[in-house]
Specification:
There is one protein chain. The chain is mainly α. The protein has one domain (4-54). It has helices at residues 4-19, 27-37, 43-54. This is Antitoxin VbhA domain-containing protein. It comes from Candidatus Merdicola faecigallinarum.
Length: 60
Amino acid sequence: MYNEEKFKFDIDNIRNDLAMEDMVITEQDITLLKRYANEEITMPEMINIIKNSAIGEKYE
């Protein structure tokens, strides 16, 4: 299990960094990162989900 407080801090920092580049992190993105942090999915699975979403598939 990950540290929720540290995770929120890290996400806030990432959001700020990406905002400078006019990029946005969605709630779906955060949910996906939480699943990875909770070891519900592996890095290759997460990458595959992201790749599939880039070609139009939805992820949960």
